[in-house]
Design a protein that fits this description.
The chain is of the alpha+beta class. It is built from 2 helices and 3 strands. It has a 3-stranded antiparallel β-sheet with strand order 1-2-3, covered by helices on one side. A hairpin with a 2-residue loop joins strand 1 and strand 2. Helix 1 packs antiparallel against helix 2. It is rod-shaped, with a radius of gyration of 28 Å. The N and C termini lie far apart (109 Å).
Length: 144
Amino acid sequence: MRGRFSPARCSTGASLLEVLIALSLVASAILGAAAAQLAALRGASSAAHREQAAWIAASVAETMAAGQGLSFRLAHMRERVGAVLPGARVAIVDEAGGLGAVVVHWPREVDLPEQGRAPRQGSCSSLDNSAASRCIALPFASRP
C-alpha cells in the first residue's frame, strides 16, 4: 500500500515554491530598477537647475562688467529670472572697488526632494542660512 505522501505529490508543491521565489526575486529587481531611475531623475533635475542658475549668474555678471545702462538691464534680467528658474532671486554682493559677486538662490522644492541627505553647506551659506534653498555664486570685475 502506498503512503499518503507520494513522490509525485511532493514535487508539485516544490515547483510552486520555486515559482513564488522566482516571482519575489523579479519583484525585488523591478523595485531596484525603479529606485535607480528615480535617483537618476533627481540628479538630472538638480543639474538642470544648477545649469540655469549658472547661466543667470553669468548673464548678470556680464551686465555688471559692461557698466552701461545698468539699472535697466538688471531690472530686465530680474524679470526673466522667474521664468527661467521658478522662485529664484538674484543678489549682487560686495561690490567694492569694481569687484563683486552675483549670487543666485533658488528654492530646494524646485528640485525633487532628496530623502535621507543632510543639506550641504556651500559658499553661499553665509548669505542665505535657509536649508530650503540652493545657490550659486559667480565673481565679477567691472570695467573702469
